[in-house]
């Protein structure tokens, strides 16, 4: 009953997001834009336009996680809503152009955007105040094995308002006495072996305890398995990355078309950036570097140079420490901030060396170091590398290789054009989020110290 009541309250809260979004748009459509049509819509047509708006708003809202109430901070919720309105209102303006057969005045729609954002921002504040008042933090236990320190992340990500950690237990100790979970409402299983995890999981389900599981690599691989009816049993078949020929063909056509159009559109940015880099230190404009793609094949990735010319004069491959990195030039800091340094990779995509979406290509030297500590890391080479990917959207620059591997394997396990499209739109959200480019510790050559196996 508690779970049902909780879900109904959330649905009630989220319903008003749609109300505050569609009412201002509906008003400006019916009062201003509909009169500009040669054959104005009547009731059914106006309802159809409103329904189309709701569908687009709900779709983009889900992609940008704009309707999450309790998990993200307030600023991220408002930012996600702003992106949702920009995409939705923008597409609806395109629909208006087709219906009116000319470009109507955009200012009324811009005013509507501001009204929508103000209403939703105010409502987000109200929602969070009400939600945490009627839903106090749940008593939570963290059970860990290979991955320690999860409890520190709750406060870092603002989850302490939703989960009150009262116990942190090693899996071995928990299995000795499951009564330690008495009175607990939520359990987080962090890097626990499957056998131990299943025992705790069953106990929690029997006793009505919610469980959040942070998977291991094997769990992610199983996620992509297919069910095959054999022996009158549901048998799981796991295999290497094997997307359909149609998917691969369509993906390649999309890569060629999108990269070619993007190169043409961004050509002025190419010229300005190249000029700025050259003027600053007279060094080369582009930076070429060996990277790995499908089946370990090497290719030369192209970037705008953002570091000093002799950044790796000692021959040691180092990951960037972000803004703290003294090797980054003033021009480099700017182009990194807005991701302009990545633009030349459009040529890699056009040539077929990269895809738009896929696991990010790693340097051979760093990949070799990762594989020595974590042999499973090579599994991400099953698919062609990409400009953006699941790990880039949901992780950060300094996310550990182990966690990046799991996210990449989640993408590889379920290849689809719809998932690629979703990742592309979700990438827009992180473009101006500074934590997505946060660097590792200065001077560190790898991020292996952050992997679960090294946290024992």
Produce the secondary structure layout.
Layout: H1 2-33, H2 43-63, H3 74-100, H4 107-134, E1 138-144, H5 150-156, E2 163-170, H6 171-176, E3 186-190, H7 194-206, E4 210-214, H8 217-223, E5 226-230, E6 233-237, H9 245-265, H10 267-281, E7 286-292, E8 298-304, H11 330-337, H12 345-350, E9 355-357, H13 364-373, E10 386-388, H14 390-394, H15 401-413, H16 417-430
Parallel strand pairs: 1-2, 1-3, 3-4, 9-10
Antiparallel strand pairs: 5-6, 7-8
Helix pairs in contact: 1-2, 1-4, 2-3, 3-4, 8-15
What would you say this structure looks like, in words?
The chain is of the alpha/beta class and 456 residues long. 51% of the residues lie in helices and 12% in strands. It is built from 16 helices and ten strands. The strands form four sheets. Strands 2-1-3-4 form a four-stranded parallel beta sheet, sandwiched between helices. Strands 5-6 form a two-stranded antiparallel sheet. A two-stranded antiparallel sheet has the order 7-8. Strand 9 (355-357), helix 13 and strand 10 form a beta-alpha-beta unit. Helix 2 runs antiparallel to helix 3 (74-100), helix 3 (74-100) packs antiparallel against helix 4 and helix 8 (217-223) packs parallel to helix 15 (401-413).
Question: Brief description of this entry?
Answer:
The protein is of the alpha/beta class. The chain is built from 16 helices and ten strands. A four-stranded parallel sheet has the order 2-1-3-4, sandwiched between helices.
Residue stretches low in confidence (pLDDT < 50, at least 5 long) are 437-451
The largest sheet is: 4 strands, parallel
Shape: globular
Structural class given helices, strands, pairing? Answer: alpha/beta
How much β-strand is present in the residues? Answer: 5-15%
| Number of E strands | 10
The helix content is: 40-55%
User: How widely separated are the two ends?
Assistant: 40 Å
Mean pLDDT: 86
Number of helices: 16
Radius of gyration: 25 Å
Main-sheet strand order equals 2-1-3-4
Q: In sequence order, what are the helices and strands, one letter per element?
A: HHHHEHEHEHEHEEHHEEHHEHEHHH
